[in-house]
Design goal:
The protein is mostly beta strands. The protein is 0% helix and 46% strand. The protein is built from no helices and twelve strands. The strands form five sheets. Strands 6-5-9-10 form a four-stranded antiparallel beta sheet, with no helix packed on it. A two-stranded antiparallel ribbon has the order 1-4. A two-stranded antiparallel sheet has the order 2-3. The radius of gyration is 17 Å and the shape is elongated.
Length: 144
Amino acid sequence: AGFTLTGAGITSGGVVTGVVASTGVVTIAGTITTLTATKYVFTAPCYTGLNSSSPSNTGANEVSGGTYGRQATTFGLPVAGVKTSTNAQNFTNMPAVTVGYFTYWSALTTGTYYGGGALSASLTVPAGATVAALTGALATVVGG
């Protein structure tokens, strides 16, 4: 539940509100005109976080302070097994920190840790600064 569903016949608000694994029944909120035999895309909610040191397997060491907060991130369809971000992220009014890692989460706060990785170079961020990731700057391997 919580995935967004897009595809032919779904005109607005295609949010998956329930899935019954034993029967394959998917409940969707929103406007559906007709469903056709085509591919539908389920998109999980994703929020990007910044980390001062390795997040390990838990998402540890996430930045805190200032008005730092995770940023909503959307990804396009995969190309050669990799999805790239289709929106920009702006982490405003950061605390003074060195950022070396990023993480992906299911929610704006707490939530499920999806994974993450190291930045190509660490960033030394002064207090009050904005860290910006341009559209296409974030990527994830399909299934990751």
